[in-house]
Design a protein that fits this description.
Pfam families: Acetyltransf_8. This is Aminoglycoside 6'-N-acetyltransferase. By secondary structure, the protein is an alpha+beta fold. The protein has helices at residues 13-21, 23-29, 35-46, 76-83, 109-124, 140-148; strands at 3-7, 53-59, 62-71, 93-99, 130-136, 152-158, 169-176. α1 (13-21) packs across α3 (35-46). The chain starts with a strand and ends in a 15-residue tail after the last strand.
């Protein structure tokens, strides 16, 4: 099975909305699922008005996941909040992710997607020295996926949660650019 991705397009917003309404996603993303809210929040990235990337991940051409990727430096407030609590390189990139289809959860797909996106980051962001990902401490499935993908927990941070019912405790994970990285990446199955 081959993992590929492309930028989210306006025509994909309905799929994102469906995914955001799934209980396993809604628990951690706490997002208004009206079409207007989805268009408001994801539309700017689709039009290139935001420095972040919203990537629609496919497994054998079937959409299965969303990955958001950006440089911390493009969001100074977030950079300051995280850098004040853990070591954060100036050129670090971060990701956020969700598996949309509940039938695909628990099958090892999350770590495979994370590994593939991290590998591509070294090419897509040639100056990126690390990928650093804060994840809510109670979201065990998410931080276990990061660990299975090779990221290491480097600390704990006090950050605003995505869900209003959660406390502020986040684990922070990091993976550094491999020494001697050549800058080439395949989009094939990384697992």
């Amino acid at each position: 099975m081959v993992i590929t991705w492309r930028r989210v397009a306006e025509g994909d917003l309905g799929v994102l909305r469906e995914w955001l309404m799934q209980p396993h996603v809604a628990r951690w993303w706490s997002h208004d699922t009206s079409m207007e809210a989805v268009a408001r929040d994801f539309g700017p990235a689709t039009r290139g008005e935001e420095p972040s990337e919203d990537l629609l991940v496919m497994l054998d051409d079937t959409p299965v996941a969303l990955v958001q990727r950006c440089r911390f430096a493009d969001y100074p407030d977030y950079l300051a909040e995280v850098a004040g609590q853990v070591e954060l390189p100036d050129t670090a990139v971060t990701i956020d992710y969700l598996l949309g289809d509940p039938a695909r959860v628990g099958q090892g797909l999350g770590p495979r997607i994370i590994r593939a996106i991290v590998a591509a980051t070294w090419t897509d962001y040639p100056d990126a020295s690390a990928v650093v990902v804060p994840v809510h401490a109670a979201n065990r499935a998410s931080w276990r996926a990061l660990e299975k993908a090779g990221l290491l927990r480097i600390g704990t941070a006090d950050l605003a949660p995505d869900h209003p019912d959660d406390d502020r405790t986040h684990y922070v994970y990091r993976i550094d650019r491999p020494v001697g990285e050549t800058g080439t990446t395949a989009l094939a199955d990384c697992g």
